[in-house]
Amino acid sequence: MRNKALILVMAAALTSACTTAPPASPTEANRAIVEDFARLFYTERDVRQAFEKHVAPDYIQHNPGISDGREAAIRALTPMFSRPEARFEVKRILVDGDLAAIHLFGRGDPATPGAAVADIYRLKDGKIVEHWDILQPMPTTSANPHPMF
User: Fold this and answer.
1) CA-closest candidate to residue 89, choices 114, 123, 67, 59
2) Nearest by Cα to 138 from 108, 101, 102, 107
3) Which of 17, 23, 80, 85 is 20 to 30 A distant from 1 in Cα terms?
4) Overall domain count for the chain
5) Distance (Å, whole) CA 29 – CA 5
6) Are 129 and 123 in contact (CB under 8 A)?
7) Helix (H, G, I), strand (E, B) or coil at 91
8) InterPro entries, alphabetically (predicted)?
9) Is 90 exceeded by the pLDDT of residue 139?
């Protein structure tokens, strides 16, 4: 009987010591989504997988050269990301709540010097639902010694 009581006390102590991890904050959850999206999209250049996994079907696109919708983005971006000579290098990812920014070097056409790009995304319910982008062409000369990245 005494052994049973000791076992029960030990079990109770161990059970109370085990705690469940608190749920991830919206920023942490969205960071994981955006980091996986960036890996698939910019690094692996698998446009379809990145967009089907992480982008809502009714995705809002603010780039005037691309229509709204996930499928429209896939159609518009696949040719550029499929070029073997294209280059995309993520420099930093920033996430705050439902907004994320990916700062990268991008060159879809090897005839150009490329650009510094900031892609801004809004997330809702675990999916990217909106996108804005800003591109700054890489200069041949600079008025200051600071690099673009």
Assistant:
1) 114
2) 107
3) 17
4) 1
5) 43
6) yes
7) strand
8) NTF2-like_dom_sf, SnoaL-like
9) yes
Q: How far is residue 120's CA from residue 101's CA, in Å, rounded to a whole number? A: 4
- The average confidence (pLDDT) of the chain is 91
Tokens coding 25 = 């904050």
Domain presence at residue 10 = no
Which residue(s) pair with 127 in the sheet? 124
Counted residue by residue, the chain has a size of 149
Domain that holds residue 93: 24-137
Interval 95-121: pLDDT, tens = 999 999 999 999 999 899 999 999 999
Q: How far is CA 12 from the centre of its chain?
A: 43
The SS3 call for residue 22 is coil
Structure tokens at 58: 């009714």
- Report if residue 142 sits inside a domain: no
Token output for 59: 């995705």
Q: Nearest to residue 104, comparing CAs of 115, 94, 95, 112?
A: 115
Q: What's the distance, CA 82 to chain centroid?
A: 19
Give the β-pairing of 115-124 and 127-137: antiparallel
For residue 149, is it within any domain? no
pLDDT in tens, 71-102: 999 999 999 999 999 999 999 999 999 999 99
Residue 20, pLDDT above cutoff 90: no
Give the mean model confidence (pLDDT) for residues 129-139: 97
